[in-house]
Amino acid sequence: MARALVALSLATVAGCASTESAIVAPPGVPEQTGCDRVNIASNPWSGYSANVAVVGYLLEEELGCEVFTHELSETASWAGLNDGTIDVILENWGHDDLKKKYIDGQKIAVELGLTGNKGVLGWYVPPWMAKTYPDITDWKKLNDYAELFKTKASGDKGQFLAGDPSFVSNDAALIKNLKLDYTLVYAGSEDKLIAAFRRAQANKTPLLGYFYEPQWLLSDIKLVHIPLPPYTPGCDADPDTVACDYQPYDLDKIGRKAFVDSGSPAATFIRNWTWTNADQNEVAKSMTQNGLSAEQAARKWADSHRDVWEKWLP
């Protein structure tokens, strides 16, 4: 989607006049300016929404920024850095190809450091299945259980349930290259994927699917990860021949170079911002399960973690 949403109230803070001499930034360091408009990409999963909620809330409340969020796919977010409609991506999952294009090649984007979140992508089953069929967590045995996973959507093969088609995924190639008797079926969104795993655990129905961490659902249902052939650097370089597990990710932040070079305090704040999987899951669960708005969830987290976020301020 390329639809822009105003996510939070548009607050501004007036600067104070001073008779003292201005402090000049050292050579190579942008002079800090006032915080004007900040355009943040919003990708379609709840953990990312938690990032946007807290970062946007604090940018407005503490720095007086105007925060706009834009609901986009991951690839479209990078394109937004290029055309100037996006200033920052708050949670990047790898995308070495896009880094090569926009950071190394066109030089319109820069890395802003790690978020502190540890990302895991992979194949999961509900816990009741791992208990009932202990060897189902051995990927080499998955064909023995393909019959269990058949659905109307998968025909004469087992169903492998994926999430949003825009998510980072090697699943179609993995099924083919590992010679598994499964068909890829998309749930369509993170919400539908979560609902499917909830139903599978509650009703003890078979389900094999794509899932990831950080994700608040794992604090409620301990989905069981199925290790695939071990990841080694470069084993996934060719998306058509990949036959290894997903790489573990140290998630990072990407900024539009012109925005970062502008001296905006928002860029400094975002560079300083780091938190944990537990922090993200807490806010995401407040928003998705406890009925809080993004602003309410962000305020709740900020009120109880002042010692954490004060370190992010410029």
UniProtKB/TrEMBL annotation:
* PROSITE patterns given in the database record: PROKAR_LIPOPROTEIN
What SUPFAM superfamilies does the record tag this protein with?
Periplasmic binding protein-like II
What Gene3D superfamilies does this protein map onto?
Glycine betaine-binding periplasmic protein, domain 2, Periplasmic binding protein-like II
Q: Which residues form the ABC-type glycine betaine transport system substrate-binding domain?
A: 37-302
Establish whether keyword Transmembrane helix is in the entry.
Answer: no
Q: Which UniProt keywords apply?
A: Signal
Q: Which GO terms describe its molecular function?
A: transmembrane transporter activity
Membrane spanning segments where? none
What CDD domains would the database entry show?
A: PBP2_BCP_2
UniProt KW Signal keyword: yes
Cellular component GO terms held in the UniProt record: ATP-binding cassette (ABC) transporter complex
Q: Which domain of life is it from?
A: Bacteria
Which residues belong to the signal peptide in this entry? 1-22
Q: Mind telling me what this protein is named?
A: Glycine betaine/proline transport system substrate-binding protein
Which organism's genome codes for this protein?
Actinoplanes italicus
